[in-house]
Design goal:
7-stranded mixed beta sheet
Length: 121
């Protein structure tokens, strides 16, 4: 069993910044790609940013230039810094990790419970 705990969501004013964090715990042999996704009401879940174990990053078009994803392999954490927040960034943000629980098993995708980010004055 792998558990993801997300933190850092909340209410932010337009133009503000915040940092989301996600920590994985449990039966972890190795974590491959870690990522953040978001889902706004009535919309499909979309990729915000991802980072491989080697540190290669990828960003969704909607946040490019306003976000930075990072990870700490020793602590099994991934963070997402966002700035210049807009009302359209309002969504539930989900952490996702591809994790191997054993060297004999393939990596499986695991989702966090989500954290609400609301951008409003």
């Amino acid at each position: 069993q792998v558990r993801l705990v997300e933190s850092g969501g909340g209410l932010v004013q337009p133009g503000g910044s915040l940092t989301l964090s996600c920590t994985a715990s449990g039966s972890i042999f190795r974590i491959d790609t870690m990522s953040w996704h978001r889902q706004a009401p009535g919309k499909q879940r979309e990729l915000v940013a991802s980072i491989t174990r080697n540190g290669d990053t990828n960003y969704g078009d909607s946040v490019t230039g306003r976000s930075a994803i990072s990870r700490d392999n020793a602590e099994n954490t991934v963070s997402l810094q966002m700035s210049g927040l807009k009302p359209e960034d309002t969504a539930v943000y989900y952490c996702n990790v591809e994790v191997q629980t054993s060297p004999y098993f393939q990596a499986r995708s695991t989702w966090g419970q989500g954290t609400q980010v609301t951008v409003s004055s």
